[in-house]
Amino acid sequence: MLVSVTGGTGFVGVHSVAEIVRRGHRVRMLVRDPAAAERVLATLAVDPAAVDLLASDVTEERDVRRAVAGADAVLHAASVYSFDSRRHAAMRATNAPAVCPPGRRPRRWRTPSAGCTAPAC
């Protein structure tokens, strides 16, 4: 199974990637800094051969389409959060809509058993 992941260098993302790889699946990560991704994955002994790194940003629709192409599942762990209302535009651009380009939803959506508070695409 191929899982496309955003936010894979953050705390939740990197631990999720490590578990996905441990279960024998392949991962494609959309990352801003591949070198930083390699460093953080190494801290959890993630096999680099199981992870493809695509250098870009979740706000780049063309690259998001490339990242999710052929994926069996998508884990969107990238986010911007701030109490500063001036960051509202960055939060809206980066969070849920960023991985849901118009007309390009994954074949099926899965939400954690605890529920999902992110807005649906």
UniProtKB/TrEMBL annotation:
Pfam families: NAD_binding_10. This is NAD(P)H-binding protein. One of its GO terms (molecular function) is aldehyde dehydrogenase (NAD+) activity. InterPro entries: NAD(P)-bd_dom (IPR016040), NAD(P)-bd_dom_sf (IPR036291), NAD(P)-dependent_oxidoreduct (IPR051783). Residues 7-82 form the NAD(P)-binding domain. One of its GO terms (cellular component) is cytoplasm.
